[in-house]
Amino acid sequence: MTETSGPADPLPGGRKQPAGAFEAADTPEPAEERPARPVRGPVVAVTGAAGGVGALLTERLAASEEIKRVIAIDERRGECEGAEWQILDVRDPALAEKLRGVDVVVHLALDLDLESDPAARTAFNVRGTQTVLTAAPAAGVHRVVLCTSAMVYGALPDNELPLSEDAELRATAEATGVGDLLEIERLAKRAPRTHPGLNVTVVRPAVLVGGGADTALTRYFESPRLLVVADSRPAWQFCHVEDLCAALEYAVLERVEGDLAVGCDGWLEQEQVEELSGIRRMELPSAVALGAAARLHRIGLTPSPAGDLAYTMYPWVVSGSRLHHAGWRPKWTNEEVLGELLEEVAGRHTVAGRRLGRKDATVAGAAGAAGATVALLGTAAIVRRARKARRRI
């Protein structure tokens, strides 16, 4: 499915008049004028503009007649020709100078890579956000838009379906990157008090798909079996990157106020996900699944901590009511986004959050259904045997 999102960029100028055209007519027809780009609208800076969501948003804003100018900030130059590029590490204090004359900053320079060193990832994410929230008001920027995740609400058995934007943020730092996102949320709340007149909006997408998103939740669908923890009640809600960019544009244009949650309408039950994906489940007791996942992560065999499992066990569906009241609507359904996700991950093989190479995948595939459980159950069995051996000594 493709989103149509407003007028295309003006056609490039410089068209050559065919030879002899003026001689062929007594009165030359007026030359075709290129539509002038309107001068109204904000000047917008996007950090992390060279890839992922940042690249897609930069292209979208550069094509919009409601945006006066787009400043693209990243450590490398991206492909958008309609933006003015500033090559800069977002943690550099020189950022303030680059933001002179900017009205709105959208900060998307975040590292949420599963394979990143956790300490380095946190240092980049937190320091980068601190720098943006300090540089923006120093440069006269009046609005900063941050993007975290609906994961900050926490995945809990007593969560309402759906959660409102104002629901308490009950997540803990036990899942990949969630600790960083919670700290970003705290910085966002504190910034307007420190810098009066600065407006900070936080946008929280559901499970993000598209734009190269690679998370523990997208890798869940790369497994030969879908791990289901016994007695849990998953509820799956997705967010296509195109819908996220549309929501970010709403925030940039100040069509909506307050923190925003964004995702497809409604959600899918686990049984629906299994039916749509054609992937059968593998059900494990909670103690086995969580205990083994924790041990695997602790010894460095998998990038995903046990906390990631909670987001496949309990609901964290959001309503997106503020965006809906402002007139925004998702272009994608949960079913459609799941279909695109399955196409994106086709051919990839993941066990317990660890992506396998071709040789490993062949071995896991040959093991059939057992291939998906080896990492979890095998580790649990080894740990149990080691404990028994210690007790005998």
From TrEMBL:
The keyword Membrane appears for this protein: yes
InterPro entries per UniProt: Epimerase_deHydtase, Lipid_A_modif_metabolic_enz, NAD(P)-bd_dom_sf
Record-annotated NAD-dependent epimerase/dehydratase domain positions: 44-254
Designated name of the protein: SDR family oxidoreductase
PANTHER family membership: BIFUNCTIONAL POLYMYXIN RESISTANCE PROTEIN ARNA, NAD-DEPENDENT EPIMERASE_DEHYDRATASE
Entry keyword set: Membrane, Transmembrane, Transmembrane helix
UniProt feature coiled coil, ranges: none
Annotated transmembrane regions: 363-383
Keyword Transmembrane included in the entry's annotation: yes
Start and end residues of each stretch annotated as Disordered: 1-39
Lineage of origin: Bacteria, Bacillati, Actinomycetota, Actinomycetes, Kitasatosporales
Organism: Streptomyces albidoflavus
